[in-house]
Amino acid sequence: MKPFITSELTLAGKQLFRFQLEGGDLESISGLTHSHRIAAYAMPPKHTFEAAWIFVLCFEDSNTFLELSSACTQIVDWEEIGSLNIRMDSNDAGESKSIASYLSKQEILPFSVRIIQKLIYEDDDVISECGLVLSGADGTEIVIAAGIPSGSVSVAAPFAEGSFEPEFPLVTYKREPLELGVERPSR
Questions:
Q1: pLDDT tens-digit profile of 137-160?
Q2: How many Å apart are CA 146 and CA 88, to the nearest integer?
Q3: How would you classify the pairing of strands 79-90 and 64-76?
Q4: Are the CB atoms for 98 and 58 separated by under 8 Å?
Q5: Which residue range is the domain that position 113 belongs to?
Q6: Is 40 inside a domain boundary?
Q7: Which CA distances in Å does 19 have to 68, 109, 141?
Q8: 62: buried, middle or exposed (CB in 10 Å: 19+, 13-18, 0-12)?
Q9: How many CB atoms lie within 10 A of CB 180?
């Protein structure tokens, strides 16, 4: 995926940075997360939950995985904003698209997703779809958001060690349900 994206312009004149999707749309991603439990994660060795350039969620009884990263795009002068990249693929799609051998895969207690939400950052000039929240029935969450180092993601989860360092404080993000089966209107 591209390390940066081109924004859309909303009716209010704000730059809108949507999720960059590959290998599936929001509906297929939602279908995967609701029909299969998350059974493992993977990321490059020596990367942390605080800042990983690639973070992968692997699903039980499926060769399919979600690869999450972020795009970092200049918005004004030296100011940049992160937005989430989501790639859905399967291990049987061929070595070039499978979970790379250099990633360190760790099994976890299976996690059933009940609710999926977008994390959205908005200020006077910009709106960015910069994270995902996967919530279990018991309220436990896996949160993946664009991180502080440009191009990274930060992860908060029951299995995560270390600090959660999203690009902006978590309280500044809005949570919105993942919109399925509808045209994505400009804001």
A1: 899 999 999 999 989 999 999 999
A2: 18
A3: antiparallel
A4: no
A5: 13-177
A6: yes
A7: 10, 28, 20
A8: middle
A9: 13
Mean pLDDT score across all residues of the chain = 87
Specify if 100 maps to a domain: yes
Spatial contact of 125 and 179, defined as CB atoms under 8 Å apart? no
Residue 58 lies in a domain: yes
Q: Can you spell out the DSSP letters for 25-51?
A: -HHHHHHHHHHS-EEEEEE-TT--SSS
| Cβ within 8 Å of residue 163, ≥6 positions away | 49, 50
For residue 3, the model assigns a pLDDT of 62
Length of the chain: 187
Which pLDDT does position 1 carry in this prediction? 58
Residue 161 lies in a domain: yes
Which pLDDT belongs to residue 185?
42
- Reference 29, options 96, 115, 98, 87; nearest CA is 87
Rounded to a whole number of angstroms, the CA Rg of the chain reads 16
Look at the chain and report how many structural domains it folds into: 1
* Residue stretches of the chain with pLDDT short of 50: 93-97, 181-187
Which one, of 107, 108, 132, 104, lies nearest residue 118 by Cα? 132
Give the pLDDT of residue 96. 44
